Amino acid sequence: MQRTMRWLKGALVWTGRKTDNGFEQRDILIRDGKIAQVGGVFDTNGVECVDLSGFRVTPGLIDAHTHIGVCPEDFPEALVDDNDMSDPVTPQLRVLDALYPQDTAFNDALSGGVTCVQALPGSANVIGGQGMTLKTKPDIVERMAVIPASGMKAALGENPVSVYKPKEKLPTTRMGNAALMRSAFVQARNYLAKEEDAQKKEEPFERDLGMEALAAVLKREMPLRVHCHRLDDIQTAVRIAEEFHLKYTIEHCTEGRLIAPWLAEKKVYAAVGPTLSSRCKIELKNKSWDTPAALWRAGVHFCLITDHPVIPIEHAVVSAALAVKAGLPPDEALRSLTVYAAEHLGLERRMGTIETGRDADLAVWDGDPLDARTRVVATLIDGESVWHR
Asked: Minimal CA–CA distance to 58: which of 27, 32, 23, 106?
């Protein structure tokens, strides 16, 4: 097989590695879509050279919580596919089956240097279905997929209540949210026990797609990703996850700064945002740009998110810049959109940093990425230029 090699020469590079801070001039060698070498001396005979002198290079940005492809731009609200509000517990639903690769937001993502995202169901249901992680170059959905089932979306707080209370259907309170979530996992445990018993007896067993999906969460094969803004909902999410020994993440974590030391003690992974939005509902009254810095000071693992289309995905880096303005160190802000986001998604061995063996997903900038005047000039996925200004 012929190997494809590319030499990126002369740029100031921010690797994202926790041992590195700031930009340094480094050459990058790409081989077959992977980073083959960063810095040092390497054989460049016959290798395509791209001179990036005067530019800066970072890992491609990662947005760990979006609804891209299931809330396509310009589609009427009745035709978007993020929420199936027919039942509050729908674990059998999959974003994989609804993603629209021609959503114009994918081009917007590339124009903002975003190379990987997690697309999730919405927060109308207590358990809303399975998200997926994917690269942002439009293609056949399976070819875009990085993890086809990257997490089970769940929601606490006012969203499920506001959907089902008018229908006079559980949940109508936060207690109802928690009860439904716990009941679903108890049912999944019972399903697993019956399946195991049927296998021992070599008897037929009737499949249930919803229970199979929740069983994957119980077996820690898929994390539970819980929408919660208020600190009481955050605590409930942690309580239920610990009860069932689940892998989990807290999505939004709006009031997380009010309980930051406790979150650090619990080793919570939090996706923070969309802080660039308005306070459009009661749960957002304590929204603040102080949250990322407060979590960082307490030692909480967090990444920044847009919740696209709530915040247009091309403005992901603007969130990082505003977090810096509120006290977050610049390197930590960039890590919150690269390596920390990769860790949030379980992809840190594949992306999020510029180092040997990682996917060659890169953003090329004409200045400091955290300066509002700076533009992305090129975006690479798997070593190939997929967008340029």
From this structure: 23
Give the residue among 236, 237, 192 at the shortest CA–CA distance from 210. Answer: 192
* pTM of this structure: 0.97
Tens digits of per-residue pLDDT, 10-45? 999 999 998 988 999 999 999 999 999 999 888 888
Rounded CA gap, 165 and 360, in Å?
48
What sign for the dihedral angle of Cα 378, 379, 384, 388? Answer: negative
174 vs 161: CA distance, rounded Å: 7
Place of tokens 């979530």: 181
> Domain 61-351, CATH 3.60.110.10 — does that match?
no
Residue 247 structure tokens: 């892998």
38's tokens? 């960063």
Domain boundaries, the chain: 1-59+352-389, 61-351
Phi-psi region for residue 208, left (φ > 0), alpha (ψ -120 to 50) or beta?
A: beta
Domain range 1-59+352-389, CATH class: mainly beta
